[in-house]
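Two records follow; treat each independently.
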Amino acid sequence: MKFSILTLFPEMFEILETSILGRAKKNNLIEIETINIRDFSKDKHKKVDDTPYGGGAGMLIRPDVVYDAYTSLNNKGKVIYMSPQGKRLTQDKVKELSREKELVILCGHYEGIDQRVLDKIVDEEISIGDYVLTGGELPAMVLIDSVSRYVDGVLSNESVKEESFSEGLLEYPQYTRPEIFLNEKVPEVLITRTSQKY
């Protein structure tokens, strides 16, 4: 699966080079490409935002720079705009998105993005919760992480894909060694089960 991320802060996605996603990328199971929206500014200072028509606080990202960044992509998969106004991300949505071959993730910033370009290129708006962040980069990482778990080969243990929220339930409390920690013992039923395995 390929993730193409349209962002003003591509350096934030360097964290995806680590851990499970880093290994998946190294093994060509997933591809993560960042496109810096600022590279498409025609302004000599690389400015990408402007004041909104009708007034209001903050600045909006211009539609032309976003559109040019989008059209620079060779292959254009389903376009997701990470937005607090979007539909809430659920495990069912994650599974659905994992069946795509490519996702283009658009990250907003400032007060958002001019609606005209959103209407033109965005297939779906997704939110990770009812709160506001400084930009769409962290939600994009959440989306990439959750979707990547369903890509064949990313997780070595297939049963992990079906844990907790996949089945509509939360995880139960889990324990490991040492058997006694700060005077708290692992539940006896688990100790008995563990010793039966060996």
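The next record belongs to a different protein.
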Amino acid sequence: MATPSNQYRVNHQIRIPRVLVIDQNGVSLGEMATDVARKMADEAGLDLVEVNPNQRPPVCRIMDYGKFKYEQRKKRKKQTTYTIKGIRLRPKIGDHDMDVKVKQARAFLEAGNKVQVTLIFRGREMVHQDVAMGVLERFYQQLEDIAKVEREPSLEGRRMTLLLARR
């Protein structure tokens, strides 16, 4: 039998005299003595696992604990992890500079990362937010084949941000 995690108690670790038991099919067997529940689990060749210690009486389930832990590890491995990479632009960015930034963003997206495009305003550039929206729109159009907008452009202080993710 595998060693239990901090969250679950298995067979011999359950010290409460009475527990509410759920069998391997998910059917509630009702409240019974812990020794009787352990005996039922042993007869089925399974473990008695405390799944909700905060309820009175605690809820225990008859299951294969090793298989349960294995399934949990498999679920954890399937979770996708990503990082957010940042690209900084200015409203007066040149065409070549824009192409370089688009190329960087494309590489980030192909690697499975998300891209946060930050357009920074200085001085009186704040007055021309329509120009900034045009720059962000032009940036997105060049990445439209590989990216989708995850968060629309939003203005926060002197920064306008756009979040892109892979299609």
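Discussion point: The longest helix spans residues 95-110. How would you locate this feature using only the token line?
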